[in-house]
Design a protein that fits this description.
The chain is α/β, with parallel strands linked by helices. About 50% of the residues lie in helices and about 10% in strands. β5 and β6 form a beta hairpin. α13 packs across α15.
Length: about 675
């Protein structure tokens, strides 16, 4: 335990939390988690607000955005009743900050929550995409991003630029503003790697044949005869096609090929060393934070699941703390809007239940005389649940301590001997006597009250699918024999496998099933042009999934790619918006184009698609109690340093950007 300052209150809080930290870490490992080591810091309210504004770190580069975030966080707590319990960062070791004014129940909940986050950071492969690119010092399975030191180095470097008497501080701040507008325009699915400009990159501006001909000082007659329109058209086509494929890492592309716009000369000049270095520093930070945005639902749900397991089911919260803890967790899970804690926890519980159900059904379908067609009539599911109940000593370790067999695979023999000698307080920490297998049976999900009925809810199609792929290498004479072979750890094992490989988009796509949507009462809604308000549009699982996928694809932000760095053979940049049914905010898009212009030094273009409604059609649809039909139109935005133009383009120009099978009638703030 550490403190920011030598405050007496912080020291006392740290002393009280030393044992909970140590025991929570041991419990997490007993449950199968493998987290980074965590350093816990005790901070006061103001320090917590500053850390939240800084994204969980104690030092960041100088910029007004941090002050704005701090002020927003402070006012949220002051006027809206918001309360910060903790913040933890992805690092090895991870750093977690606890607010000293929180009750002990809250501190213990935070510690269990943090340990689960640290496990997710350490084992999810999307976080490894950044780690593999920057840290080759440690063993491959335990690398860390060294984020605290990295961000501190970035802060020092940018501060050096700002304090350099030969560099205008305001110019540095403006440059950072330009880059931050693009912080999500990276290739989030690629491993981080630094980019550097090389001689091979060279100039990508196409030749200007008209200017070259003017320098020859030929007569108009000769020019017209030799250099006709066909010549210029052919010349324009020769150098088309850079980059050869669309580039998603816009920041990286600009770091290599971009230039600065010089207002005095009205020309594009090479970036200075400090400009290019800041571009790469901020790009590295964007890649560092990307996995946290890509796994928000999974990560928070994972932490909420294991926090609930440790605090509630393993009674890490004392009897005098449980009500406080339960009340606060209910508020977190019950908060409005798209709640990643609630959605994530429900999805992880569904994965666990579905995996355990499959394990039990695979055993039952191997019993002689039972098939997927007659399983419902041949099996008494109430009796099955009774058979799956753990023995009394697993549920009540302290009450059966003297009669527990030390050679049972569910028992830690050394811990059992120590407990019998009084070395372990089994009333307080009964889990210490059990192994991972014992804890899995103790907390078997299908036996929990909230999961009652889940086993028999398996559809005929699921039963048929399970039966189709069963091998006949193992058959049972009775249901009792089949249930004796149930692997109680299968649910947790599968959860850890999924935790390693998925992000929010793939996780939701795989497990937001019709069964889940129905059981948890999810629905889709839209803004109605007919009534002017919001209406439930569908309870179909595919519609609900589509809405959620829109929310998490590319962090819920527009996907912008580089299509042509020599557009119209004039050195202009052509970007393209991969339209997913959600229109760009044209006003905001033009503001961003102005920022990109400063990083490209020449005119910037953006292709996109908009949906338009005819006023007459809207009125007619309203009278007929119908929704009006929209028309998709291609648009090209262009900023040349002085003016923004928006023009309609042929559909063939943007057809490759159009979405397929997407609900077109929504906006980001209308998603679930």
């Amino acid at each position: 335990m550490s403190t920011i300052d030598n405050r007496t209150d912080a020291k006392e809080t740290a002393r009280r939390l030393r044992e909970p930290v140590e025991e929570a870490r041991k419990l997490a490992r007993s449950l199968g988690l493998d987290p980074y080591p965590v350093n816990y810091w005790i901070v006061d309210h103001d320090e917590m607000n500053r850390l939240i504004a800084y994204g969980g770190f104690q030092e960041r580069y100088p910029h007004w955005r941090w002050g704005m975030a701090y002020d927003r966080q402070r006012k949220q707590g002051q006027f809206l009743g918001g309360k910060a319990f903790e913040i933890v960062n992805n690092d090895n070791p991870a750093h977690a900050f606890l607010q000293e004014s929180n009750a002990l129940a809250d501190q213990k909940a935070v510690i269990t929550h943090v340990e689960a986050h640290a496990d997710f950071f350490a084992n999810n492969e999307w976080f490894g995409l950044f780690t593999d690119g920057v840290d080759d010092r440690a063993a491959a399975d335990r690398r860390g991003p060294d984020a605290t030191a990295m961000l501190a180095r970035h802060a020092d470097r940018i501060r050096e630029f700002m304090e350099d008497p030969e560099i205008d501080r305001e110019a540095v701040e403006r440059w950072i503003d330009h880059v931050l507008c693009l912080e999500d325009t990276i290739d989030q699915h690629a491993a981080y790697a630094p980019v550097k400009q090389t001689e091979e990159d060279g100039e990508i501006d196409g030749p200007d044949p008209e200017a070259a001909i003017e320098e020859l000082d030929l007569s108009a007659e000769v020019t017209g005869q030799v250099f006709d329109e066909a010549f210029f058209a052919d010349s324009s086509d020769e150098d088309a096609g850079f980059p050869p494929e669309p580039v998603e890492d816009l920041i990286g592309f600009l770091a290599v090929h971009g230039k600065q716009y010089d207002e005095e000369t009205d020309r594009a000049l090479e970036m200075t060393d400090w400009q290019r270095e800041i571009l790469e520093l901020l790009r590295r930070e964007a890649y560092y934070f990307a996995p946290q945005k890509m796994t928000k639902v999974m990560n928070e749900g994972w932490a909420a699941y294991w926090e609930s397991m440790m605090m509630g089911e393993e009674a890490f919260a004392g009897t005098d703390e449980f009500l406080t803890y339960a009340d606060h967790q209910a508020r977190v899970l019950g908060s409005g809007g798209l709640n990643p804690y609630k959605l994530g926890k429900e999805l992880w519980e569904y994965v666990e239940n579905r995996t355990n159900r499959r394990e039990v059904l695979e055993r039952l379908l191997r019993v002689e005389g039972i098939t997927w067609r007659n399983l419902e009539s041949e099996v008494d599911f109430a009796a099955v649940r009774e058979r799956l109940e753990p023995p009394a000593w697993v549920q009540n370790v302290s009450g059966w301590l003297e009669s527990i067999a030390p050679d049972d695979s569910r028992v830690d023999a050394d811990a059992l001997a120590k407990a019998r000698d009084g070395g372990i307080d089994v009333d307080r920490y009964p889990w210490k006597v059990l192994t991972y297998e014992g804890l899995a049976q103790r907390h078997y999900s299908l036996l929990k009250p909230q999961s009652r009925g889940f086993l028999e809810r398996a559809s005929n199609s699921e039963l048929e699918s399970i039966a189709r792929y069963l091998f006949d290498d193992q058959r049972y004479d009775s249901i009792e024999a089949a249930l004796a072979d149930v692997a109680y750890t299968r649910g947790w094992d599968h959860m850890r496998e999924l935790r390693e490989s998925h992000n929010d988009v793939t996780f939701i796509d795989a497990f937001l099933t019709g069964e889940f949507v129905t059981a948890n009462d999810y629905f889709a809604y839209e803004h109605s042009h007919k009534t002017g308000d919001f209406r439930v549009s569908s309870v179909d699982p595919e519609d609900v999934k589509r809405k959620l996928m829109l929310e998490f694809t590319n962090f819920g932000k527009p996907t912008i790619v580089v299509e042509d760095a020599n557009y119209d053979n004039s050195g202009e940049l052509l970007l393209a918006h991969r339209y997913n049914g959600v229109m760009l905010d044209i006003e905001e898009a033009t503001d961003v184009l102005k920022r990109i212009f400063e990083l490209w030094g020449r005119p910037v273009n953006l292709l996109t698609i908009t949906t338009e409604f005819d006023d007459r059609d809207v009125e007619m649809a309203r009278r007929r109690d119908q929704e009006p039909k929209s028309v998709e139109v291609g648009k090209r935005l262009r900023y040349d340093g002085d003016h923004v133009t928006v023009e309609t383009v042929e559909w063939e120009t943007v057809e490759h950007l159009a979405a397929e099978d997407i609900d077109y009638d929504t906006k980001p703030d209308e998603w679930l």
